[in-house]
Amino acid sequence: MAFQSYSSSDQLLHRQRERIFGGGGGGGLNTTRKLSLFFATLCVVDLFGVFPIVALPKSIISCGLYGAPLVLFVITLQIYTAVVLGRCWTIAEKLDPSIVAKNRYPYAAIAEFTYGRRMSVFVTVLLDLTVFGGGIPNLLVAAQNLQLLGSRVSGGSFEISFCYWLLIIGLFLCPIMWLGSPKNMRTLASISVVVCSSVAILTWISIGEDRSGSFTPFKDITLGLPPFVQLLKAYGIIAFQFDIHPMLLTIQVDMQHKRQIGKAVLFGILTTCTLSMITTFMTAYRYGMDATNNVLQILPRSWSLYLTILLVTLQLCLSSAVGNSALFQHIEDLLGASRDFTIKRCIIRSTLVWLGVLIAEILPRFDLVMGIIGGTLTGPLIFILPPLFYQRMLELEKIYSQELKRSYSTESSQMSDDHLEDSDIETIGDSRRSWYGSIGSQGSTLSMAKIRDNCNKWIELVAIRCKQICHFMYSDCILAGSVIVFGIAATLASTYYNMFDIRETQLWFSCLSAWRR
C-alpha cells in the first residue's frame, strides 16, 4: 500500500528536505513555461467550449422551472470534486515529490498512490474511454453545422451530408492534434476563449433579429416537475458539458502555482455559465419548447448565423486539441513514443482521430453520445472517485505527519534523557504524590477552587473536541459521503436509461448505409 513507503523516519526527513530545498537541479529553469492562473482559466473555459452555449439550452428548457436548479446543483458538486481532486495532487507532491515524474497521467497516479495498481488501471481505462468519447460530439456538431451552413447560404440547393463533412474535419484536425500538452497551447486556448465569447454574442444577436412571425414568450414551458427520464437525460448532458476532471490535473501540473487550480476552475465555470445562462434565457423567451438540441438549427438565415456556425466549428476543433491531450499522452507512453515531436506521435494521434470519425459515422446522434458519456462514464470520475481519493489522501497525510513528529520527538527525548538528573526524578516523584494524594492528609489539600478550575478545563476540552468532531463530520465524512452516494445513484439510473435509449434509436449505421445506397 501507499502508506508503507512512509514508515521510515529517514525517508520522511529526506522527503521533507526535498520538499523544502528542492529535489533536483534545473527545476527552476522550466518555471517560465508554466501556466499562470490566467492561462489556466483560459484552458478551463476552452475545455467547456461552446457546447454550454449552443447545446445546453434545450436540456435546461425541457426541465422547465427545475432546469436552472439542476444545473446549479450539478455544477456546485463538480466545483467541489474538482477542488478536492486538485488538493489530492498537492498532498501527493508533499508526501512523495517523485510523483511529479508521472505528470503525464496524474489522475491514474493519484489512484495508484491511494488504492494501488488495480485502481490505477481502472481509472486509466475510464479516463481513456471518457476523453475519447468526449471528442465524438465535437466531430458530429461541427459536421452538422457545416451541413447547416451550406443549406442556409444556398437556400437548400447546396447541401453536403454531414457524413462527408466528418471526413473533411478529420483531415483538418490531424495537424492540430500533433501539438503537445496544454502549456504548449497558450495561443490555442486564447483563441478558443475569444471564439466562445464571439459565438455567444453572435447567437444573442441572431435571436434578437429573428422577426419570423409572432411568438409566445416561454412557449409551452411548464412549472411542474418534468418526467424523471427527462431529468436523467439533462443530468447526463450537463455532466458531460461541464466535465473537466479528465484534463484538470494535466492543467494543474503545468501551472506555476498548483494550489490556484480551484480559482481557475471557479473563474472558468463562472465565465461559461454566464454565457450559457444568457443564451438559455433568450432561447426560452423566444422559442420556448420549440428550441432544438442545437440552438443554431432554429435560428433564421443571417450573416451573424453564418459567422457563428464557422466559429463554432473552429472552436470545436481547437477544444479537441486541448481536451484529447491526456488520452494522447497516455497512449504514447504505452507505445513508447518520445515526448518530443516525432513521426510516431503524428501516426498515433492521427489514428485516434480517424477512429473517432468512424464511430461518429456509425452513431451520428450527438445528444445520445453526450448522455452516454455524461451519465455513465463521467459519473465515477466526477462524483465518486475524487472524494474517495481525497479521504484516503487525508489519512495518508495524517500518517505522514505522525511519523514526522515521532522522528523529531525521538531525537528530542534522547537529548533530554542524557541531561536528566537524579534530583529531577525525585522532584517528579514528589509532584506525582502531591497530585494523587496519600493515605495521610496530603489528599485533602486540594481546595474547591482547584477542583472547579479542573472541571472547567475538562468542559472546555470536551467542547473543543466536540467542535472538531462536528467540523470533521461536516467537511469530510458527510459531504464526501453524500457526493459519493449521489454519484453512484445517478450513474446507475442514467446507465439504465441510456441502455433503453440506445435500444430504441434507429440511427445506427445511418451514414454507412447511405454510402452503400
UniProtKB/TrEMBL annotation:
Which GO cellular component does the record give, naming just one? membrane
Entry annotated with the keyword Transmembrane helix: yes
Q: Which UniProt keywords apply?
A: Membrane, Transmembrane, Transmembrane helix, Transport
Question: Which Pfam families does the record associate with it?
Answer: Aa_trans
Q: Which residues form the Amino acid transporter transmembrane domain?
A: 53-400
Q: Where are the transmembrane segments?
A: 35-54, 66-85, 121-142, 162-180, 187-207, 227-244, 264-285, 305-326, 346-363, 369-390, 477-497
Compartments in which it is found = Membrane
User: Which PANTHER family does the protein's record reference?
Assistant: OS05G0424000 PROTEIN-RELATED
Full protein name: Aa_trans domain-containing protein
Biological source species:
Anopheles funestus (African malaria mosquito)
